[in-house]
Known about the structure:
Elements (H helix, E strand, L loop, with lengths): L2 H53 L17 E8 L8 H4 L2 E6 L6 E4 L2 H10 L1 E10 L2 E11 L3 E2 L5 E11 L1 H48 L18 H51 L4 H32 L6 E4 H11 L1 H4 L3 E6 L4 E4 L1 H17 L4 E8 L4 E7 L6 H4 L23 H11 L3 E7 L3 E8 L10 E6 L1
Helix pairs in contact: 1-4, 5-6, 6-11, 7-9, 9-11
Amino acid sequence: MTLRWRLTLFYTSLIAVLLAAVFTTVYYLVRSSLVDATNRELNSGLTQVLRATQLSPTATPSESDWDAFSADLYAQVEQRLEQPRQASDFEQLGFARLSIGLQSANGNLALPPDGYAILVRTGSYRGEGLLRVNTSSFPVEITVQMLPAAILESGNTVYPVVYVAKDFAPYQNILSVLAQRMILVSLLGIVTASLLSFTLARQALGPIRQVRDAAALITGKNLNRRVPEPGTRDEVEDLARTLNGMLERLESSFETQRRFTADASHELRTPVTAIAGHASYLLRRTNPTEGQRESLEAITSLSTRLGRLIGDLLDLARADAGFGVEPQETSLVALAEDVHLEVAAIAGNAEIEIIGPRDLRVSVDPHRFRQVIRNLVQNALKAGSTRITVEVSKALDHVSISVSDNGSGIAPEHLSKLFDRFYRVDSSRDRGAGGSGLGLSIVKWIVEAHQGELRVTSTLGTGSRFEVVLPVPVAHPTSVRREKQAV
């Protein structure tokens, strides 16, 4: 998950938790307020009922006793002939009832079983109850009070029980509507917070994304580029400034190293050439002893090897300096034939086959591409190949030249590092042949300078195949030449 999405998720979750806390608090505050208001009305109604019953303690109150009674309250007085001792007594004992209220003229207020049990035990009850009107029942908030016993004129002892109730349905509707609207507002708030968080995170991380994109384009060949400094006066600007400082130091260090390599190579080339020349002169113009001849031949061989190494280092220094290529219309088959003539002296009995249309001309730097073919063929010879095939072919959108051999092959674990500088694979390259580990690095640089691609496949004990793919337009060939030569 990206940082942008993590920030969006964090802030959205935070807003959701805050909204849930606020709306839950509001809901329960409103509910508590409504319950308190209901309890106050019930207490007021109970006071009125008790006052009315005290006016006539041994008789049923009349309608006139309730003129001031609230119209949205329900009242009921039961005069029981015996004292209730358990909850079931309220259903079994006979009583006289007077119901008062707008909807309760024919109604009956009743408690749940546990409510009657509390009433028997404590003499009062407050909580939920039911108002039964004909065949319908309505949930109400109710308060019940058992009054002291009274003796009727008939000598019977009665136990008055006073019920006062209020319909809580309107308040429940208010709470339901409030809950629905709070849920709707919460959802809208969460969606809005998500969009705003995503937008703000995108804007805040925009400079970091610009720095990242610019840094991704910087390579060893363009260390002079810099990442943009957003000017936000925050940590992002500090990061960009730090990266630019690091790039400046890297560029300076890299330039110093490149200049040293180029200067040292130039300085070494002259004495190495002189050493090789003097050794060759002594071999040709003097009559050295056998030991002297061996020493002079060793000097000549090592000077030649050192000269190649210096040339490779100069090529890499030019590549690091950003020197380009000079393309011109060239036949790849002709370049391969030139390379064949150059390596004839070291090819021994190896068979070299060149396949492809001679008049297929592409726009490449002939000097550099001859170097590519030469390095690949020489590597094949160093790998002990007895048969090498150089093939040039054309497709719709590219031209390819491949060098295949039947040498010792390369292990799969070495393929990813094959084009690294100074990397040599002992199992596939003979150190005694003088390889420096720079040839394939130079090949890769030349191919990439031509906007091409270098591919390699290899199997241990079977051989290797290096293929250069050039995405360049070419003219249609008129003939195909297949050439097989043995040296």
